[in-house]
# Entry
Amino acid sequence: MKGARVPKLKTHKGTQRRFHITGSGKIMRTKGGKSHLRRKKSSRAKGQYDELLPVHASDKARIKRLMPYG
# Structure
């Protein structure tokens, strides 16, 4: 008899939508608060919402656990 199979791990879909993993392995995130109430903000502030930011080191292990095949 062959060895016991390890079950597949499920990806957390909310995490999959919120984070992006680059080719080099960095986990990137978008800023919150960009969906509404943007009319009163300056164009510079609005432009900063479009940037992807790296995830803080303290959150990396949690996100990796939620996205096992990311």
About this structure: The mean pLDDT is 91. The longest helix spans residues 57-66. The first strand starts at residue 19 and ends at 21.
